[in-house]
Structures are given as C-alpha cells and as structure tokens.
Amino acid sequence: MADDTQGIRIEGLRKRYGSGDTAVDALKGVDMAVAPGEVVGLVGPSGSGKSTLLKCLGAVIEPTGGRMILGDHPIYDDGWRIRDLRALRRDKIGFVFQAPYLIPFLDVTDNVALLPMLAGRPNGESRERARELLAALDVEHRARAMPSQLSGGEQQRVAIARALVNRPPVILADEPTAPLDSERALGVIRILNRMARQYRTAVIVVTHDEKIIPTFRRIYHIRDGRTHEEAGEGRALD
Amino acid sequence: MISLAGRDILHAWGKFVFTGVGLGLLIGVTLSMAGIYRGMVDDAEVLLDNSGADLWAVQKDTLGPYAEPSTLADDLYRGILTLPGVARAANVTYLTMQVRPVAPNQAASNQTSDPAGDEAARERRAMIVGVVPGGFGEPGQPPFLVAGRHLTRGHYEAVADVTTGFRLGEQVRIRRNLYTIVGLTRRAVSSGGDPMVYIPLKDAQEAQFLKDNDAIIAQRRRTAANPVFNRPGQPEVLDAVLAAQTQSSSVNAILVRLEPGADADEVAADIRRWKHLTVYTRAEMNEILQAKLIATSARQIFMFLVILSVVSAAIVAFIIYTLTLGKIREIAVLKLIGTRNRTIAGMILQQAVGLGVIGFVVGKTVATLWAPIFPKYVLLLPGDAARGFLVVVIICVLASLVAIRAALRVDPAEAIGG
C-alpha cells in the first residue's frame, strides 16, 4: 500500500465538461495514491476517463472537485489550486509520452538539460545533471546525437531522462511502450522501476499494453469515471 | 539558457537560408527601387551641379530649360553680364536625341544611310548640350574630363559622358553632321539619366532650330514669291530676310554665375525687371526638377515600394506561420514541460527577425551587385539601407505576431494523447 504522506494522492476527484443538459461527468470521484518509488498501472477502455485523469494529474486541466496532494502539498482542493501550474509541471511532474516528442532541433543532452535550464539552473549544472541521467539510462554514448539519429528505444530512454531530470515526485507515463516490441517495452518498464526506486519517484503508467500489465504490483482500473484498485501480478522484470 | 531559435535555425539551416535568399531577392528589388529613386534625385542634383550656374534665365513664363521648351535670343546674355552681381553668363542649348557612332568608312563618305551592326547596337539616347567652345570654366561647360580635351574649335567636336560608350577619336552623327569625340567626362547626365554630349553652341543651334534642306528650299521659294520681301530693284531685302530665316540665333537658356557674396534673389529680380525673362534660382530649379519633372516617377516608385513591402510582410508572415505550424507538437510539449509563453514567443520572434536579417544581408548584397547593370543610375545610400533594415525588422516582428498568436493558443494538453 502506498505511503499516504508522500508521492501523489487524489481523493474524490471529479471533472465535468460543459454545463446544464449537455454536461458530461468524465471523472466521478476518483481515489488514487502512489507512493514514492512505486510504479502503478492505470488501465481502462477508451472513453473511461483515463486521459482526463492524466490531464488533471498533469495540471493541464483543472478538476471540478476533489483533492490532489503532491508530496505534502495540496495542489488542488475543491476549487482552490496553486497559482503557477506551469512551474508545477516543470518542477514537480515528469512526463513520458507514447511518442518520445523530443525537441528535434536540440541534441540529446540539451533535450534533457532544457528543463533545469527553464527552471533557471545554470547551463553547466543542467548539462551535468543530464549526463548523469543519460549514463544511468545507458544512452550517454549518444549524448551529442540529434533525436532523429536515435532508435525508438533510445528516444524513449532519453524521454525518461527528461522526465526525471528535475527530480519530480511524480512521473506520468502515457502509453510509453505502445510503439515498442515486447523486449523493448519490458526494458522501458524495467527502467521506470529502477528510476522510481533510485529517485524515490511515484510513477503512474497509463497503458493498454498487455505485455506490461503483469509487471505492476498495483493496478488502478478506471471505468465510467471511477477507479478501483486491484493487486497486480508484479511479475519479476530482471 | 540555450537559444531555442538559434538551435532551430542551425538544425534547419538549409530551409532558413533558402527562404532568406528568396526573401533577400525581394528585399534586393525593394532596395533597388529606392536606389533608382535616389538615382533620379541625384541625376537632377548633378545636372544642376554640372551646369555651374547660380541662376537660370529662360523664356518668360516657362519652366525651361529642363522641364519645358524655352527659346531666347542668343545676344541677351550680354545685357545680363552688365547687371551688378553677375560674374559670368553663358548661352546654352539642350536637345535630347539619338546619337550613333559612325564607322570610319561611312564617315569618310559622309553617308547618311541607315546604320547596321555594331553602330546600330551602340546608338544611344543622349542630351546634346550646346556650349561656347574654349569656354572652360564658364557655366554650362563640362565640369571636368576623364580623358581628352575640352571643346576648342567652333564646329564638329564633341565631349561625351563615358556612359555613352563612345571612344576618343570616334565619330558620331548628330543630325546631318559628324562630330569627333575629343574628350570624355563622367556623371554628366540629364534629369532623365541620359548621358550628355557637349558640342559647340553654333552646331547645337543648327541641330536644334534649323530645318532640313527641302524645308529650307520650300521656305526660300515662298519668301521669294512674296512681293513684300522680293521688291524690284531691292534684292538686299530678300537676301536679308532669307539670311534671317536660315540662321538660328536662339538658345534655350542663359546660365548665370554670381559674384561671391551676391544675393541670388536680388540679381534674379533685376534680370526679371530689366530683361523681361523668367529667372530661377538654384533652389527653385531644384524644386522644378524634383517636384514636377520626377515627381510622377517618384510616386510610381513609392507605390512599388509599398507593394513590395506588403508582399515581403505577407511572405515573412506566411513562412513563419508555416514553420510554426510545423512545430505545434513540439510547442505543446514545451508548454507542457513548463516553458514560459514569452520563451516560445521569443523563439518565433527571433526566427522571424533572423529570417529578416538573412534576407536583408542577401538583399543588400544583390542590390549592390546588380546596381551597375541597371541602365539608369542606382544610388544606394547607407541611410536608406539603415532605414530599410529597420523596416525589414519591423515587418518581421509584425509578421511573426500571427505565428506567435497561433503558438500561444496551443493547448499543452495536445501533447497528452486521448
């Protein structure tokens, strides 16, 4: 069970699109808690509210009600929210997408170092931090390469490094293994688990991928805007 | 912080350079149009400078000699010379016509048949200026020579501007007569940019005012048939009338140079009062040339400049907008990971300005390179280039606003699937 005082915790999260007769309740009271160093799966059919939940967690859209607590700090509480969502996304949340979406005109190091630079850290320190992560993810030999020169697996590892570089307490991974074959998909999950433990980061993986679902110890199923938790197989990755 | 715009430009430098070159050619045309206008103004200034005159005495109530026809008696200058404040006064005629070189074999036989080959190709439109030979330093004379000598003989010599392409010793045909090029000068042009060819005043008067032989014979016949002129026992009356008809004593203007310290307006007023002529000062003549003679052309060029500026702005806006649309996903990711709006706007703005700078450098370079090829004088002033650069930057900034607006409207949620 997740540690309630850290990681990310959401309680009774609701999201309504529109108003009046045309209103649609995409989230109807979602509860979820992910501890630091834990990787959980979030699965559900299309239209179940996965993307809406991810956007709420990613501070991209504002919930209609409920609570979201990141670490020890509430970021949303029934209509109240912290003011600077952009800084929150930059400093507290890491994103890994289905496609890596690396910036094509920056090399691998600067793709990773961009976030600390945006946060105001010196270029040298930012690049040093990027190189450490690239080494931890075994892509330091491609540090000067452009994204177009990387394989799909390498691009995804660089994207993970970018998500981790500001040491966020939570990483949101949106279908990170969808374009990869089984071996590479499991490799990505292995890396996410290792990084989660190493950096004490809570990781939420939104996925349809049957190959990786058995690897999670806990899985949140979402259907009709509500979640329910169940234990996963937690199949060994090593 | 790294320069996102700079990295993007370096990454896609080929696209930027080729786009910049295309824009640069357009800017080059725009700068050339401005240069053509400046050249016209400079030609007008040079025309007045080269005349060496402070005042222009012309036929009453005309804007002559450059903007309207003007005819004066060629002895009026003597009276003007006696007025206080006048240092020099000289007759001058101006006539714009086609001048062509003549091959030596044709010159020997003084043939007047149609030219062929090289001569026809080298035929030039020129302003024929009639000046008194041996009067170097007088108003109206060529200001300096780059080769040869000034006019010294009374007939059949010419000094030409180098842009005519005529060579020293070469013969050119002006109306019925052949003239030998004895001197070459530079930047002697009419307000229309035609190079000048200086010939002796008497020849110029003949070229401008005399009729052809058939017309003279017909006029003599008519005069002789008139009993008023052809009186029995008084043949000298008919001779005098015929002589008056066949000799030209008209010029287009009298150029007046003042003594040091003389007041141009006072001297001009004296000439108007005592000689019943219209007189223009340098400032007035400048106004006539610029406000009347080249005003329409200047407005035409200004319209071209406006249209080219609008087209340039539209092209820059389109290019920057297209480049931005091509990066929508990257912009969404940048926004999602916390990039400030002003960083993204700055990236687009820098790219637009960068494109403008590339375009301006290319434009200035090509305008400088192709300026000498233009048939008329193209004067590219550093001040115009600086103003042009400022306009290009302003256009690029304005053109980038559409793209910036599009980028700022990108929802960071677009980076998240679903």
From TrEMBL, chain A:
GO terms for molecular function: ATP binding; ATP hydrolysis activity; transmembrane transporter activity. CDD domains: ABC_MJ0796_LolCDE_FtsE (cd03255). InterPro entries: AAA+_ATPase, ABC_transporter-like_ATP-bd, ABC_transporter-like_CS, ABC_transpr_LolD-like, MacB-like_ATP-bd, P-loop_NTPase. Pfam families: ABC_tran (PF00005). Residues 8-238 form the ABC transporter domain. One of its GO terms (cellular component) is plasma membrane. It comes from the Bacteria. The keyword Nucleotide-binding applies. Keywords: ATP-binding, Nucleotide-binding, Transport. SMART domains: AAA. The keyword Metal-binding does not apply. This is Putative ABC transport system ATP-binding protein. It comes from Thiocapsa roseopersicina.
Automatic annotation (TrEMBL), chain B:
Its main location: membrane. It is a multi-pass membrane protein. It comes from the Bacteria. Coiled coil: none annotated. Residues 302-412 form the ABC3 transporter permease C-terminal domain. The chain crosses the membrane at residues 12-37, 301-323, 344-373, 385-408. The keyword Transport applies. The keyword Oxidoreductase does not apply. Residues 22-273 form the MacB-like periplasmic core domain. InterPro entries: ABC-4/HrtB_transporter (IPR051125), ABC3_permease_C (IPR003838), MacB_PCD (IPR025857). Pfam families: FtsX (PF02687), MacB_PCD (PF12704). This is Putative ABC transport system permease protein. It is found in: Cell membrane.
